[in-house]
Specification:
This protein is of the alpha/beta class. The chain contains eleven helices and 22 strands. Bound molecules: manganese (II) ion (MN) (2 copies).
Length: 464
C-alpha cells in the first residue's frame, strides 16, 4: 500500500542510466564523442568562438551585419571581439512576446601571461603568469600545460598560437618543491602552499651563446622572433593563456563520464550551441549567448555586464522593422532565460559541504538552481515559482530527467553566474546546467547522461 503511495507522491530523483536502453545509450555516447572532439580544439574563449562561428556558418547562420531586414526563420549571429558570441533564430511570434534565451560562458579558469612575462633565473627561462578565475593554485603545478593565444603587432598583424596540444609539440610545466625539502611548505595552509607569484612557467634552458648575461632568455626570444617575427615588447600586446595540455577523455570502466579541462562552462556552451544548430520554426525568437569573463565577474565589453548584448537584440528589432522607444525593455520583461552554467556535483568524498537533500548529482540529469548566492542568498537571482513551474512543465512534457538543487550547504559556499544580469533586465531566469566534480580544477568530471540531458533540455526550451 505505502509503496504505491510512495510511487505516486515521492520525488524519486532516479539515476538516469537506469532508464536508458541500448539505443539511447548509443545516442548519449555519440553525442559525448562530438563534445569531447570539440573541447579538444576549443580550450579558450577565442578558440571556442572561432569554432562556434564555423559551425554556425555551416548550419545556415549568417553575421547579422549581412542582413538589411530580418524575417521569421532567419538565423543570425554576432561575434563580439572574437571572444563572445550571440546567436539567434528569429521566431514566428511577435518579438514583443519575448525571447527564449540560453546563456553560457566560454571562458574557464586558467593562467594568463603577465604583460611582461619573460625572464631568466639561474639559466632557466620562465613566463610569469597571473591566474584567471578561482583556482586552487597547487593544482596547476607539475602538470603538462599548453600555451594558447593571440599576439597582435603594432602593424595590426595577428598571430594565433597553440603549442602543446599536438603529440609532437613540446609542453610546459610549473615546478613544485620535492617533498624532501618541503617541510615548511607542507606546514602551510593549502591555499598558501603555492604562492600566486610562483606560478611561473618553465620554458627553456639552452643559452644563445656561451658568455654573457640572459643568454637563455635571448635564445627564447630568438626562437620566438624566428617563428613569429616578434620582439619582447610585442609580448605586451598579447593574450596568451596557459591551460592543461590534457585531452578530453572518456572516464571509468563503463565510460560513463567525461574528464576534461574547461567543462565549466563549455559543457553548457557546447550543448546549447549543438541544440541551436538544429532549430527550425521556433515560435519565440531563440537566443544563444556564449559569454566571456564570467569567471572574473562578467565585466568589460566581452562580459555579460556590458551593453553588447542589448546592441545585438536592438539590431534584431531594427532589422525586423519593429523597433520603437522602450521596446528593448519590453522585450526583456517578457523574456525567459536558462542561465546555462554548471552546478557543483555532489561528491561523496566531500559530502560534508553539501546538503544531500538539495544537491545536484551526477547522472540524475540537468540540474536547476533556483538561486545561487551566498550567506542568506545574498546577491542571488531567485527564480520565481511561476517560472520554475513553467520550466518543469517543459522538461516533464519532453520526458527529461531533472533535479532542483542548490550549491552547497547553507553558509558553506555559494557562487554566481550570469543569471542575475539578464534577470535585472526584467527577464525570468533560472540557472540550469550540468553537475560537475572537481569544478575549476585542471581536469573536471561530468556524466555523459547529464551532458545529453542538457542538450535535450536546451532544445526543448527553445521549442517550447
Ligand atoms: Mn560557470
Ligand atoms: Mn566557474
Amino acid at each position: 500500500m505505502s509503496e504505491e503511495l510512495k510511487e505516486k507522491l515521492f520525488d524519486k530523483k532516479e539515476n538516469g542510466w537506469k532508464s536508458v536502453n541500448d539505443e539511447k545509450r548509443q545516442a548519449i555516447f555519440d553525442f559525448s564523442k562530438g563534445y569531447m572532439d570539440f573541447l579538444n580544439q576549443a580550450k579558450t574563449e577565442r578558440e571556442f568562438v572561432k569554432k562556434a562561428r564555423k559551425l554556425a556558418d555551416q548550419n545556415g547562420f549568417k553575421d547579422i551585419i549581412e542582413f538589411d531586414t530580418l524575417k521569421p526563420g532567419d538565423k543570425v549571429y554576432f561575434v563580439n571581439r572574437n571572444k563572445s558570441m550571440y546567436l539567434a533564430v528569429i521566431g514566428t511570434e511577435s518579438i514583443e512576446k519575448g525571447l527564449h534565451i540560453i546563456g553560457s560562458h566560454v571562458d574557464s579558469p586558467r593562467l594568463d601571461l603577465k604583460p611582461n612575462p619573460l625572464y631568466e633565473d639561474t639559466e632557466m627561462a620562465y613566463f610569469k603568469t597571473h591566474y584567471y578565475g578561482g583556482i586552487k593554485k597547487y593544482q596547476w603545478t607539475t602538470i603538462p600545460l599548453s600555451i594558447h593565444g593571440t599576439i597582435v603587432k603594432t602593424n595590426g598583424e595577428k598571430i594565433d598560437i597553440c603549442i602543446g596540444e599536438d603529440e609532437n609539440d613540446p609542453i610546459f610545466t610549473i615546478t613544485d618543491l620535492l617533498p624532501h625539502l618541503a617541510q615548511d611548505q607542507m606546514e602551510k595552509k593549502l591555499k598558501n602552499g603555492i604562492d600566486g607569484e610562483d606560478l611561473n612557467l618553465l620554458i627553456g634552458s639552452i643559452p644563445y651563446e656561451e658568455k654573457g648575461k640572459d643568454q637563455v632568455k635571448l635564445n627564447i626570444l630568438n626562437i620566438l622572433h624566428q617563428k613569429y617575427g616578434i620582439t619582447e615588447a610585442d609580448l605586451t600586446s598579447t593574450e596568451i593563456e596557459v591551460v592543461p595540455a590534457f585531452r578530453a577523455r572518456s572516464m571509468g570502466f563503463d565510460e560513463s563520464m567525461v574528464a576534461a579541462y574547461g567543462q565549466d562552462d563549455k559543457v553548457c556552451a557546447y550543448t546549447s550551441l549543438a541544440a541551436m544548430m538544429e532549430l527550425e520554426n521556433v515560435k519565440n525568437t531563440a537566443i544563444c549567448i556564449l559569454s566571456d569573463k564570467e569567471e572574473i565577474g562578467s565585466m568589460g565589453n566581452t562580459g555579460m555586464e556590458s551593453h553588447m548584448f542589448d546592441f545585438f537584440v536592438s539590431e534584431i528589432l531594427n532589422k525586423l522593422g519593429v523597433n520603437k522607444p522602450n521596446l528593448l525593455d519590453k522585450v526583456f520583461c517578457f523574456s525567459k532565460m536558462l542561465s546555462s552554467d554548471v552546478d557543483a556535483g555532489f561528491d561523496p568524498i566531500y559530502a560534508s559541504v553539501s546538503d544531500k537533500i538539495n544537491a545536484g548529482f551526477l547522472g540524475k540529469g540537468i540540474s536547476l538552481n533556483k538561486y545561487t548566492g551566498a550567506r542568506g542568498k545574498s546577491g542571488a537571482s531567485d527564480a520565481n515559482a511561476e517560472y520554475v513551474a513553467w520550466v518543469r512543465k517543459v522538461l516533464e512534457e519532453n520526458d527529461i530527467h531533472y533535479q532542483v538543487a542548490e550549491l552547497g550547504k547553507v553558509d558553506v559556499g555559494g557562487g554566481g553566474t550570469i543569471a542575475y544580469i539578464i534577470a535585472n533586465k526584467g527577464a525570468d531566469v533560472i540557472d540550469c546546467g550540468v553537475p560537475v566534480l572537481s569544478m575549476h580544477a585542471p581536469y573536471e568530471v561530468t556524466s555523459k547522461y547529464d551532458i545529453y540531458s542538457a542538450y535535450k533540455t536546451y532544445k526543448a526550451f527553445w521549442n517550447a
